Amino acid sequence: MAPVRIELTRDLVRALALPDVVEIGVEDVDDDLLTLVHDPAFVEAVKAGARGEPDEARGIGTEDTPMFPEMHAAAARTVGSTLAAARWVWSGAGPHAVSVAGGMHHAMPDRASGFCVYNDVAVSIRWLLAQGAERVAYVDLDAHHGDGVERAFWDDPRVLTISVHESGLTLFPGTGFASDVGGSGAEGYAVNVALPARTRGNAWLRAVEAIVAPLLAEFAPDVLVSQHGADSHMGDPMTNLRVSVDHQLAAAALMRDLASAHAGNRWIATGGGGYTVVEVVPRVWAGLTAIAAGAAPDLDAELPRAWVEEVESRLRIAAPQHWSDGLAVELKRFAEGYDPADDVDRTILATRTAVFPLHGLDPSW
């Protein structure tokens, strides 16, 4: 979670000199906004954590979520980043916005979890609902299950949460299986695709398209919110998926296209996990920003030379030279054929079987 991830992404976006990218100012977030999702007692506990007072029952001061002096201010600022993106899109200032600092999807209403203190995504979705949005779709592409956002809207059929992640059998937080479909009155509005470890890029992208595209077409949200944790990458030290930058950016382009087709072209994208801080994260999130601005990077091209030289001068390590990982993207749509011998296809079918009939959809095509 090193802040340098954000700095390197910002610098790469600037080096691209994209004509339609505007940096939006971020306002302070008060407790009233935080308590759209979080218990007031938890907010006070976070403030105490910033003073060095742990509260392990609320996840503060643990190995999972350590304390630090600006804990409340920094976490609230992250919420402010994603709220600024939500305001930008919902006000009509622009169709797309990206909050690379956001995506803290593990934070629960009453506790910090998985490096996440406040849940910027859940707060922003609650804000959108309060502004008049009738349906919000949330798609989580992080390697880890988006459990905190799912929990916040478990009983709310106005919010469709879809998480495509490595199975909880092999990865934190150990949740998010096909049978987890939402609470009473909201059955089918929590959707989980628990992929086997070592799933590769083309199979991962197939799963994303097979689940997300039909559900968004049926749900027709007012706005699409997506989380683009880069930790599904094959080089990430904390996960077991085998996805390339090329495939992650193909998924970002898919989210853009689905927002255009089914969400009134309103799209809010966030960052999330990603622990290959220099080699992967800036390429994924700067590429995401370019896609949101309608200027998808040429994956065969080299990265801007000035950015490469600055990274190597500042950090004294080798910087990536190219956008691409050199792996071909081939989207084989699930509707074109199901392979019962394939682990990923069985995972896709399990999720479609659990959820699609609840939306009047046929899981077999």
From TrEMBL:
Keywords carried by this UniProt record: Acetoin catabolism
Task: List the source organism.
Answer: Miniimonas arenae
Name of this protein: Acetoin utilization protein AcuC
GO BP annotations of the record are: acetoin catabolic process; epigenetic regulation of gene expression
Q: Which PANTHER family match?
A: HISTONE DEACETYLASE HDAC1, HISTONE DEACETYLASE HDAC1-RELATED
Similarity comment: family membership: Belongs to the histone deacetylase family.
Task: Identify one Pfam family in the record.
Answer: Hist_deacetyl
Q: Which Gene3D superfamilies match?
A: Histone deacetylase domain (3.40.800.20)
